[in-house]
Amino acid sequence: MDEARPSWVVSDDGWIEYRRLVLSELTRLNENILNLGMKVDSLNSQRLESISHLYVAVAMLQVKAGVWGLLGGFVPVILAILIGLLTKKL
């Protein structure tokens, strides 16, 4: 009958060793869950940082596009004014 016992059972009662095994597994699993939580928090903070950098980059591109649009709009206006001034003088 001793051959049928699992390797972790040492005493006749068996519960003492089984309890130690269960507690050690629960401790190990708890540590793994805590480590995974820290990794998830780290990845989330990195993702949020990347998103904030993207928001800044998009805002900069919007400003640049606005400036170039403004300059592009001034060119025809300035040309029209110059042509108007030149035609009045002639």
Please give a quick description of this structure:
The protein has 90 residues and is mainly alpha-helical. It has 1 helix and no strands.
Structural account:
The chain is an all-alpha fold. It has one domain. Helix content is 83%, strand content 0%. The protein is built from one helix and no strands. The chain has one helix spanning 15-89. The longest helix is centred in the middle third of the chain and has 75 residues, at 15-89. It is rod-shaped, with a radius of gyration of 37 Å. The mean pLDDT is 88.
List the helices and strands and how they pair.
Layout (H helix, E strand, L loop, with lengths): L14 H75 L1
Q: Which terms would index this structure?
A:
90 residues; mainly alpha; 1 helix
Topology as a string of helices (H) and strands (E):
H
Shape: rod-shaped
Question: Main sheet?
Answer: none
Overall domain count: 1
* Alpha carbon gap, first and last residue: 121 Å
Kindly name the structural category.
Answer: mainly alpha
Nearest-integer average pLDDT: 88
Strand content: under 5%
Low-pLDDT windows of residues:
none
Radius of gyration equals: 37 Å
Kindly state the percentage of residues in helix. over 70%
- What's the total helix number? 1
Number of strands: 0
